[in-house]
Amino acid sequence: MSPTHTAAVAAPDRLPRPAAVDTRQIVWAYAVTVGVYHALALLALLPWCFSWTGVILAVGGVYVFGGLGINLCFHRLLTHRGLVCPKWLEYGFAILGVCCMQDTPARWVAVHRRHHEHSDRQDDPHSPLAGFLWGHVGWMLVKNGDLSRLGIYDRYAKDILRDPFYRRLERTLLYPTIVIASWLVFFGAGFGARLIGGGTPGQAVQFGTSLLVWGVFFRIVAVWHITWSVNSLSHLFGYQNYATGEKSRNNWLVAILTSGEGWHNNHHADPRAASHGHRWWEIDLIYGFVKLLEAVGLAKDVCRPNRRLARAKAGK
Ligand SMILES: [Zn+2]
Ligand SMILES: [Zn+2]
Questions:
Q1: Could you tell me the distance, in angstroms and rounded to a whole number, from the CA of residue 249 to the centre of ligand 2?
Q2: Ligand 1: distance of its center to the CA of 119 in Å?
Q3: For residue 92, is pLDDT > 90?
Q4: Residue 2: its pLDDT value, please?
Q5: Domain containing 200: what range?
Q6: Which residues pair with 143 in a beta bridge?
Q7: How many structural domains are present in the chain?
Q8: Ligand nearest to the CA of 113
């Protein structure tokens, strides 16, 4: 171990919830949204709402909307500044992220930066050491005074809110407009394609609905659980390359579902690195895409893994 590095204090196995949490105060905006979208996603079970095109859009959408919008943009680009893209492209990715309904970029960034600051300590907003369901979803459904919008924005998201586009997402109806537009695009594409293909209006409504249910509702809920799994599963199950002092784990299942975000222990060891896979077999599709962007001149200042920092955290 380097003489300048002191071993991180291990996180406890169980944690209380943050002291500022009041479980009697439901955050209704989140609770209703989560409940309603799960109900809408269940429509996918109805044969009338089924189409193979919808299923393909749902699976592809997990990687396009979740992978590029949340994992690449909200997480690696905005939260950790692991790369820089032209603004038009960054905003394009951010719009994909907004379509995932994980709140605004500023909010997402602020909560996640707080998670890194207090990982698996009581002030961590969503440590699964306070309960699996708490870390997965419960934390956002009840009031946590630590996460009052202005407080955390001031502390963790000033850089994001200096950008007029992200400010507009906070202060205008742009955010819900993007979400509703994405509904219309999916329904309208299916409706129009079936009509043009010679279908009846009834068939067009059925096909448009199938794309909406699978390509939007089901996909949003799937991406929610996948993102939430990084917070829950990747802090409980898997292996550690680095003694980071909290419970972050490299979890291959989460890595597959998130195109690389499941190498979460590597990420906690070196948060700025745009690459989350640190061993040759820790496949990170998002980083592969970043390298592609870099090769064609659409990404620069890509932050590579800092082997020295990672080794120090590993105590070597
Ligand atoms: Zn984490
Ligand atoms: Zn992070």
A1: 13
A2: 6
A3: yes
A4: 34
A5: 21-313
A6: 22
A7: 1
A8: 2
